[in-house]
Amino acid sequence: MTTLAHFQHAFVEALRAEVSDFAPAMHPAFAIYRNTVMRACLDALEANFPAVVCLVGRDWFRAAAALHVDEAPPRDARLARYGEGFPDFLAHFEPAAVLPYLVDVARLDRLWSESRDAADAAPLNLDRLAELSPEVLVSERLGLHPATRWIDSAVPVRTIWEASRRGVPVGSDLHWQPEQAIVVRVAGRVHVVPGDGASLAILDAVASGATLGEATMAVTSAYPGARLDLILPGLLRSGAFAHS
Amino acid sequence: MSPLSAGLGFKPQHVRDALDASQPGLWFEVHPENYLADGGSAPAMLDALVARHPVSLHGVSLSLAGASPPDAEHLRRLRQLIDRVQPTLVSEHLAWSAWGGTYLPDLLPFPRTHDALAHVVDNLARSQDALGRRISIENPSHYLAIDGHAWSETDFLAELVRRTGCGLLLDVNNVHVSAHNLGTSARAYLEAFPLHAVTEVHLAGHGVDASLDGGLLVDSHDAAVAEPVWELYRYVLQRMGPVPTLIERDGNVPAFDALMRECLRANDMLSAWANAA
């Protein structure tokens, strides 16, 4: 190790320790570095998981997030991306177990950020699709827009997430039921729209390279009652697909 | 950007005002790390800003004083951004912020040894090659004295200029903050500073941490530029003449107009110098 590397190794160790015999860390002002590094990481997580912050409160959030920062510090200077592993951290974080919806809300926060930052792509050309004969249409392979995400949850994740992002309590009329959500970006704005099992099955099939015909076949066998005549046009117009 | 005009650190919440602003010579600066998404609204906002005003890129994460080379993937993304937005200037810090593949979001100090100089020269040369641009290096703010320096900071910076052809970004607030915290003279620092290589000046506000050492100054960028910093800026202008000058603000961000007033104050000082010359 070079002398610079030795110094930096000792500096990082001292940042992580409460007490250190590293000479600069004996100085009270070393606290500024400790505080700045941790604060920037916590600020990033707080900005990236606003619905979680709303549900647990800022103090609880930052105390939990500090443990995650210690375990999984950022590896990318684009701090708007930090927190990839935070939902999984919450899933194993004992004090979060009393809030069974928290992990999926965190996942939806994360999907929202991923959607916001994903690559641009031209939206699906519905006019072109409309001109295709049914025989051609079934063999069409659609491409997902790079900003499209979805989540299948055992809890009412979309309703809770949506209220939390607005900073309001979930209404007393909440139906405790599984919810699916689709995250799309239209004209630069991220939208989280309600989904259903059949819609998500179509997205799964398209993502794995199925033709439109194969995708609808897969859905009708898994969801025999699904109204594909309603679901498919809605999905095609949602912005979930890109021009391929 | 003209040496006679001041610019502003760009805040996304001011995007409308920034795009509408028609102050002659106005320019903006951004941290590229905030605009390196693959797509979406952030890069689009930067493209709109670039279409309207000159923009400079002020990086915070290259870790040029790191014991390891700068992240190749980050350099590649930065190069793409530079090719797209054609910034008027690219700058970074004399600091480190990466260790063992993790990113420490701060600008950390190091002993200015011969070994450190070799690392910074190498990292800077690699970065300038990868980016195809001259980079200007900013003097850091200091909070505590570190042992083992073989070089003064001003000599270290001059040697970087000599060996790599880099430029310098003189942050006058950092000079003030560091001199206060280390008990040294800001004027003496400026007298020794290699002003011939300065391509840009930064002005910012600082805070006071009263809990530490009877009042440490912290380079917090969350207040208006302080009077002693304006005084030092006047001294810099006397010594080197007009230079593109940026008002930085990151916390307690006021209305756009309040930042523009600081920008115009710098403009007035730049014009006064030019008129007197």
Automatic annotation (TrEMBL), chain A:
Keyword DNA-binding: yes
Gene Ontology MF, one: DNA binding
Domain Putative DNA-binding stretches: 7-90
Gene3D superfamilies xrefs: DUF2063
InterPro entries for the chain: DUF2063, DUF2063_N_sf
Keyword DNA-binding appears in the UniProt entry: yes
A Pfam family reported for this protein in Swiss-Prot or TrEMBL: DUF2063
Record-annotated membrane-spanning stretches: none
Keywords: DNA-binding
Protein name, per record: DNA-binding domain-containing protein
Source organism (scientific name): Luteibacter flocculans
